[in-house]
Amino acid sequence: MIALVTGASSGIGAATARRLAREPDCHVILLARRRERLEALARELGRASVIAADLTDPDTPARVAEQVEREHGRLDLLVNNAGVGGRGSFGSSGWAMVRRTMEVNFDAPVRLTEALLPLLRRSAPSAIVNVASVAGRVSRPGSGAYSASKYALVGWTEALQIEERRHGVYVALVLPGFVPTEGLPQRELLANPMTRWMVSKPEKVADAIVDAALRHRPERYVPRPYGIIPVLRMLFPGLYRRAVGGGRFTPTAAHQQPRRGEPPADPPEANSPER
Length: 275
Ligand SMILES: NC(=O)c1ccc[n+]([C@@H]2O[C@H](COP(=O)([O-])OP(=O)(O)OC[C@H]3O[C@@H](n4cnc5c(N)ncnc54)[C@H](OP(=O)(O)O)[C@@H]3O)[C@@H](O)[C@H]2O)c1
What we know:
CATH class: Alpha Beta
CATH architecture: 3-Layer(aba) Sandwich
Largest sheet: 7 strands, parallel
Strand content: 5-15%
Bound molecules: NADP nicotinamide-adenine-dinucleotide phosphate
Shape: globular
Radius of gyration: 18 Å
Number of strands: 7
CATH topology: Rossmann fold
Number of domains: 1
Order of helices and strands: EHEHEHEHEHEHHEHH
Number of helices: 9
C-alpha cells in the first residue's frame, strides 16, 4: 500500500504516519514544509519517503502528483490532514485570517485531491480521508475562520464521497474534537479539571483515520461521543449559544501561539477563564 499523509511533520499527521507504518507492506509518503522533521520521521519509520512542500504554492499539487506517479506508479490512500488553527474574532483578524485559513484547510486539500484523483482512480480500490473537525459542524467564538474552512471541507467531502464511490475511491471524513498538538495546544481545556476529560490524543485520531481508510467507513468522530454535539446544536440552538458564549471554549492568545506568517490571536476576553 502506498499512502500519502499531509501535515506529517507533527501532531495528528505524524501519529497517522506512525500508525500506517505498522500496516504490512505500507510505504508512507510524508508531506509538510519542515523537511528536517519529515526526514527524521522517515528514518524512524523505515519504509517512508519525504516530500517537503508548501501546499498553498500553486505548483505543489502537480509536482506531488508527478513525483508519486514516477516513484510509485500508484496511490492507495491520500490523507488530507495538514491544517492551521485560524483563531481570533472576525473583528480583530478580519478577512485576511479567513482567507489564509481557507487557503490551507480547504483550497489546499481540494487542489491536491484534484491532482491525485486520476492516480487514485487507477489504483482503485483506494481511499481518501479528509481530516475535518467537530468545528466543521458547530462553531464557537474566536474560531469563525477555522469553522468556515472546516464546514467547507465537510460539505465538499460529503458530495465527493458519493461521486467517487462508483470509481472505487472511498472517501471518508474524520472529525476530531479537541486534541493537544503543536498548532492547537488546547491549553485552556487541559488547565481546567472540568474540561480536561474532553481532550483526546493524536494516536486516537490516527487509529480512526486508518480504520476509516481500510474499512471504508464514511465518517468518524473522535472521540465518538462528540457526534452528539452537532445534534444538540440543531435541537437546542439557544442552549448551545449560551454554553459556548461563556468563554470556556474560546481560544485566546494565552494558549494560541501565532503560526508562521499569521497575525496573533485576540487578547483574552473579559470572560475568559484565564483572566
Ligand atoms: N488538534 C486538534 O484539536 C484538532 C481538532 C480537530 C481537527 N484538527 C485537524 O487536524 C489536522 C492536523 O492538525 P494538528 O492538530 O495535528 O496540528 P499541527 O500539529 O499543527 O499539524 C499541522 C500540520 O500541517 C502542516 N501544514 C500547515 N500548513 C501547511 C502548508 N501550507 N503546507 C504543508 N503543510 C502544512 C504542518 O507542517 P509544517 O509546518 O511543517 O508545514 C503540520 O505538519 C488539521 O487539519 C486540524 O485542523 C485538529
